[in-house]
């Protein structure tokens, strides 16, 4: 059986698809005939189908990881499921003895490893299912007539289940749904607000809640404590909570990732107190890197009848066989292997914690004890007037609006940092989460990921190096945000969009002439302008990244500016955006009006040419229109008629006669097209300098051998440009209607008047300047 399973897993993990030459027949597609069509399939074909369904189309997801490398201990765990199905075919007596032996051995080993003496075990697939069974056991223990009277007993004295405010989301709702209790039976206990950790249960406030519930005629039933909260891994004061539960007869249940440290030689006092609780839930699968291993709830109770009614024990062999994968895995790993894996995960968290203490602008959220295997950190920027030793807590004199903007900005940057680190170091298993007080943070929990992903100490060093490489980008971006906002607000035509979820420098929107500021609907004209603006900005080949998307809380298009990795000239950036958007708007408006102007010009030219033809007929007379008579009359008395046509000036939008062109053999000067709008100031860049970079003059970035020559070249260019501007300013101004000299006109200006509507067939041609 093990050999067949190994061969099947090897086939499923193989990344090479069999070709037609290898198997000698048509390659298998994604679908094979089902059991209702044709004959049955062999095992190889069925496994090939499973492989296709598991991996899907590799062309669509080229970066998706294939089946994880579970190793030999994973194969042992998977063998347990197949072996359990095989064992279930034995006769009842052998099956009963074997399942009882497996269940008792696994329970004993787990109680010895995690220091929970004289306990019983319940194995379950859903992690929260064990707690629901414990709640049923507590109800049956405290309500003696519950089996007979049922809901009437609960109605006369309502039970209360106490949960910490730092408990995992959805736990209370799950318990109420499984037990059939109303939501008022849940009581959420707040965490400490003044003393101690902000993620630990407030014991004094819990005692007050218990006394109030007793006075109201309620029954305090069960308390769920945390040995490692779901968010930051903090441990409640389980010793004091146990004393409080014994005083009021409350069942104490403990869960959390820190319970894994009970297998180590040194355990903190707060976690060690969990061994005295009434029940606890363990998740050895993620801790040891074992796939398809059930969770375990250890509990202490002397009445087997109540445990049977609650569902914690069962007489069915199939329920007892749930422990078989864990029974095989524990024997394969041994005590040394179990302790080594848990100890390795704790060492990884301690290594990361010690390394992050030496990194500036990184705040670590840890409790007082150093034994927690969870590290939660976040990027922060010291505010003006704050003490660096207090982790950048703003002073009371700071404006609340400024503190709120700083909080939202840091949250967006931490979210970006977490996503970047997950891509750079995928074996780290980082997660990004939002905390109520601290904001967005990054969590590192090697106990839940290191054994599965195979993380080592070198990966922790790589993670720290990646964090240090991203810090300059984060600090520079955060410093430029306020300057960018001020520049945008001071620039006409631009609107600053406050998007708290964008981690870049900022978001800006160009307000065109027809923009309805009060409307939040999609603006097609604005979307067209922003699409052209995005294309122009990406063509500049700067270090900044630009993207277009809908505005925050509306459907209008905006330009999102990404992270800044170096000192950026924000004023030049904003000015370039404004000028480029204005050019795109004017060009689009000119092109939109061009069709209408040309159509009207053609109609007017046709009318004028028709009138000119009628006038020519009146001047020549009727006889000249007769074919033979007209030719003889024109030979004796030719008509001296000038060629009259029309030329259409696209720049001026007017019709002009071509008589001047045929008489003087030269085209009219027309109207000089307006100059393309440019920025108010043009920045001269050094050779190789990218757009939006601040000038390197006076900085240490220029070497001693090349800085002088580069600065002299830059000064010469500025002097030449300044001299040309001065000469243009001193030249006499021309009258708007005066003709310009021939050599001063643009190349397209001389052709502007002559190309157009001539004779009976009007012709229109765009000037070169508009092309």
TrEMBL record:
What's the short name of a Pfam family annotated to this entry? PDXDC1-like_cen2
Q: Which UniProt keywords apply?
A: Decarboxylase, Lyase, Pyridoxal phosphate
Residues in PDXDC1-like third domain copies: 484-589
Q: Which SUPFAM superfamilies match?
A: PLP-dependent transferases
User: Biological process GO annotation list?
Assistant: carboxylic acid metabolic process
Domain PDXDC1/PDXD2 second, chain residue ranges per copy: 372-478
**What segments bear the compositional bias annotation Low complexity?**
740-750
Annotated Basic and acidic residues bias: 1-25, 758-771
Q: Name one GO molecular function term.
A: pyridoxal phosphate binding
Region Disordered, as annotated, extends over 1-37, 667-771
Q: Which cofactor does the UniProt annotation name?
A: pyridoxal 5'-phosphate
Instruction: Supply the PANTHER family for this chain.
Output: PTHR42735, PYRIDOXAL-DEPENDENT DECARBOXYLASE DOMAIN-CONTAINING PROTEIN 1-RELATED
* Family statement: Belongs to the group II decarboxylase family.
Q: What is this protein called?
A: Pyridoxal-dependent decarboxylase domain-containing protein 1
Q: Which organism is it from?
A: Capra hircus (Goat)
